[in-house]
Write a structure and sequence with these properties.
The complex is a heterodimer of chains A (244) and B (456). Chain A has 244 residues and is an alpha/beta fold. Chain A has 7 helices and 15 strands. Chain A has a 5-stranded parallel β-sheet, with helices on both faces. In chain A, strands 10-9-8-12-11 form a 5-stranded antiparallel β-sheet, covered by helices on one side. Chain A starts with a strand and ends with a helix. Helix content of chain B is 69%, strand content 9%. Classes of the chains: A alpha/beta (244), B alpha+beta (456).
């Protein structure tokens, strides 16, 4: 069962949110319960700490009279519950939502300009969360997660072509189907972390064997399924042919 | 001296000069990567073969007595420069023109350090067949000379001459003109020096005069470069002033709209008062909603946008964003700008930052221009010691993420896509900047993150 937390400084709005969510949970039969609704971010954090697990969080962006605003609260919640669902509730239509989504992986935001719109937004969020949980249960895709400065990026392992050691020390470039980014790391550690699916074909390359399209044995080049090319060392040729 | 011993001497001299070139290219000019892992043994072997060939030719020249003619000495010097540039290009997979720039820079510094060392130790050309003179030659050539070279290089490094030279190398328009002048340095030193010596002036005085002339030429050259640089700085400041002018006009326009809205607002409030007095709750509710929406669409959105822009405390970046916002407004593109926390500065050089951000925004603008619901999203997020610059737009073409960095690759036709190649090149010069590209749910996202001084 998923715990639902509400953090809203206006008592009246908090009451309405709680009632609305309870109604939705009951009517739709969602496997959720309201764990706490409070105007104090500290209380929410304490409750989340005491009750670890995946939760749903409806957070007000502007928390008047509190040390923490909604963004800071979201960041703390993310530390305690990396997979939880965070939804922001705001009085203003224009919220820097991309920033919230980028840093906190926030799911959605609801504008509390009218009761109807807020109720509709709360219902929509619960429905999206349920859909997402259902999709996750059916999926057995493995992800490669890596910290890139202040954010963590997740890339499906089957979408990674290869890792390349760049000209800068300790900087690795991930070449994927839909991603290409640099991060700090070492090929040796990645080799240990990713196991047999990846082969160290060259000092500068760690290749996803399943993504290899063909080998150019004379030029000692590997052509990947997306058309990218990388190198392989002479002594890896045997292992490469065997694995393919 | 036998052919073998001359060959051995030349080999040591060539290796020393190549090491000097590589060192200068890595440490002072910072053009060559300090990472040897991708050099490849085959390329190193091929470079060695080229060096061997150069050394062989130099040995033949010496043994045949061809170096008596100054023309042949200069020719041999050019041969060594070309071989060095070719070898560096081969080993580090760099373009010849960049390697030629490194070789010339190193050559001039070597020329200074070497000639000055010889001027101190001897007043005439040394005869290498005499063991005593050969020892002096070796001491100066392989001991004092390289020592003076590294000292001079250190001074240049401290004076940031290397950085200025690299910037200059990256400017294609100055390159050709200036590089032709610099390439002539062997002729400029040895040609006139030989003429002076021919007319009875001592070797040291002739070389001294020529070094002095070369110094004057280099100072003039530097001065001209600085003038050009200042001219460009002035032009960019003019652009900033124009951008600020646009900013002020935008704020004035907003104030005018506020004034107009204040007038309408009074009328609206009277209407609302009447509706409320008649007890029509639904109508009143509807009225308030309309009024809020009107405010948002008329000024609220612009206040929000200006508020976000106000969080950008770097004038140059603010100017760039404002120019792009005005362009997008003209194109009918909606720009969603998010700068949640004040952005005061970053470790990237301002010109590099503006170029990179400009390239990303231009690309996004071009992709969505003329489309229905054209929208570009820009985020600058500065917190916890990191700054993220992120530009996002809807994709209307299929994009090969791995191809976009190739020079000339573009979804919009031939001879385009130069921007992203230079974007990548600029960022590659920074240790603490990580670029990222992604295609997600039909959007194209480009970002670069900077670890600031206090970052973890």
């Amino acid at each position: 069962m998923l715990s639902v937390y509400i953090c809203e400084d206006q008592e009246e709005v908090r009451r309405i949110q709680r009632e609305c969510l309870e109604k939705q949970i009951m009517i739709q039969g969602y496997d959720m319960e309201i764990a706490l609704s409070s105007g104090c971010p500290g209380e929410i954090l304490e409750a989340v700490e005491k009750n670890p697990g995946r939760g749903i969080y409806f957070l007000d962006v502007e928390l008047k009279g509190e040390e923490m605003d909604g963004f800071a609260l979201g960041r703390e919640i993310r530390r305690l519950d990396p997979r939880g669902f965070i939804v922001y509730v705001t009085a203003y239509g224009n919220l820097a939502f991309e920033t919230f989504r980028y840093h906190l992986e926030a799911l959605d935001y609801i504008v509390k300009e009218s009761m109807e719109k807020m109720e509709e937004g709360l219902g929509r969020s619960l429905s999206v969360i349920t859909e997402r949980m259902r999709a996750e249960q059916g999926e057995h895709r493995e992800f490669f997660s890596v910290k890139v400065m202040d954010v963590i990026k997740h890339v499906p392992i089957d979408e990674i072509m290869f890792f390349e050691a760049t000209q800068r020390t300790h900087r690795i470039a991930l070449h994927g189907v839909n991603d290409w980014f640099d991060f700090i790391g070492s090929l040796r550690e990645l080799e240990e972390q990713l196991g047999e699916r990846f082969l160290r074909t060259h000092r500068a390359y760690l290749v996803n064997v399943e993504q290899i399209a063909e080998l150019d044995l004379r030029g000692r080049e590997i052509r990947m399924k997306n058309g990218e090319r990388c190198l392989f060392a002479r002594n890896v040729k045997g292992a490469l042919l065997e694995r393919m | 001296m036998s052919f073998i011993s001359v060959f051995a001497h030349n080999t040591v001299a060539s290796v020393v000069s190549l090491v000097c070139v590589v060192f200068a290219g890595m440490a002072v000019l910072k053009i060559l990567p300090a990472d040897w892992r991708k050099c490849g043994l085959c390329r190193i072997a091929l470079a060695m073969v080229c060096q061997g060939l150069g050394i062989f030719i130099a040995t033949v020249f010496y043994k045949q007595g061809l170096l008596v003619h100054i023309f042949n000495s200069i020719l041999l010097l050019y041969l060594q420069l070309i071989v060095n540039a070719f070898c560096v290009g081969l080993i580090f997979r760099e373009k010849f023109r960049r390697c030629w720039g490194i070789v010339l820079f190193t050559g001039i510094v070597l020329e200074y350090s070497g000639t000055l060392s010889f001027l101190i130790f001897t007043d005439r050309a040394l005869a290498l067949s005499i063991p005593e003179e050969r020892r002096v030659y070796m001491l100066v050539n392989y001991g004092v000379g390289p020592g003076a070279f590294f000292l001079l290089l250190y001074l240049l490094y401290k004076m940031k001459v290397g950085d200025a030279y690299r910037r200059w190398l990256e400017h294609g328009e100055f390159w050709s003109r200036g590089m032709i002048c610099l390439s002539a340095y062997p002729i400029l030193i040895y040609g006139p020096a030989d003429l002076l010596m021919g007319s009875g002036v001592s070797r040291n005085v002739s070389l001294g005069i020529m070094l002095l002339m070369l110094s004057v030429a280099l100072v003039l050259f530097h001065h001209m470069g600085m003038e050009e640089w200042q001219r460009r700085e002035f032009a960019s400041q003019q652009i900033i002033l124009q951008q600020q002018d646009v900013y002020i006009k935008t704020l004035e326009g907003m104030q005018e709209e506020m004034r107009r809205f204040r007038h309408d607002y009074k009328n609206m409030m009277s209407g609302l008062y009447l509706t409320a007095s008649e007890g029509e709750l639904a109508k009143t509710h509807c009225f308030i909603q309309e009024m809020t929406e009107d405010f948002d669409s008329q000024i609220g959105d612009r206040i929000w946008q200006m508020g976000q822009l106000g969080n950008v405390c770097m004038t140059e970046v603010k100017g760039l964003l404002l120019t792009k916002l005005v362009q997008m407004q003209r194109d009918g593109t909606v720009c969603e700008l998010e700068v949640m926390h004040p952005f005061r500065g970053t470790r990237c050089r301002t010109t590099d930052l503006c170029r990179c951000l400009g390239i990303l925004i231009d690309n996004a603008m071009e992709e969505v221009r003329g489309r229905e619901d054209a929208r570009v999203h820009i985020m600058i997020s500065s917190q916890e010691g990191y700054t993220t610059f992120r530009v996002k737009n809807r994709l209307y073409h299929t994009v090969d993420v791995h191809k976009i960095w190739q020079q000339g690759y573009s979804t919009k036709g031939a001879d385009r896509g130069l921007g992203l190649a230079s974007y990548r090149k600029i960022l590659a010069g920074y240790e603490d900047v990580l670029p990222a590209t992604a295609v997600q749910e039909g959007y194209f996202i480009q970002e670069f993150k900077v670890r600031e001084q206090n970052g973890k």
